[in-house]
């Protein structure tokens, strides 16, 4: 799960690297990460087996996340907003707790409940604006 979270964000930053046309400069980050990851796998797997492989993967994904973030930050001065992230995280926790309480119900009820609870929580926490919801609901195809 840790590695997948890193993959998500490094992919996001990787797309920004393409948008700002810094792919060539980013190659060194990928090369260094690949060499260090191979070394980490070579050292960790013989001693720790599957756990060594898992933690070497986490290590390599963190490295590439840091490399892509630094490349984006150096070229755009982008700073992620922790406010929206915290609202999304809190909404997810609320949804998760509600789903845990409803765990005996049919999966379709759980899916609908999850969508509704998350939407209400993110709206109540002002994670989305009323105008955005109105624009989505009442938009017309062009």
Write the layout of secondary structure elements.
Layout lengths: L1 H18 L3 H54 L5 H20 L5 H18 L5 H8 L5
Task: Give your account of this protein's structure.
The structure is a single chain. The protein is mainly α. 83% of the residues lie in helices and 0% in strands. The protein folds into two domains: 2-76, no CATH class; 82-137, no CATH class. Helix 1 (2-19) packs across helix 2 (23-76) and helix 3 (82-101) runs antiparallel to helix 4 (107-124). The protein is flat and about 50 Å long.
What number of structural domains do the residues give? 2
Beta-strand residue fraction: under 5%
The major pleated sheet works out as: none
Structural class: mainly alpha
Helix content: over 70%
Q: Which parts are unreliable, with pLDDT below 50 for 5 consecutive residues or more?
A: none
Count of individual helical segments: 5
Global morphology: flat
String of helices and strands: HHHHH
Q: What does the radius of gyration come to?
A: 20 Å
Distance between the termini: 40 Å
Give the rounded overall mean pLDDT. Answer: 93
Give a count of the beta strands, DSSP E runs of length 2 or more. 0
Give me a quick take on this structure:
This protein is mainly alpha-helical and 142 residues long. It is built from five helices and no strands.
Features:
single chain; 142 residues; mainly alpha; 2 domains; 5 helices
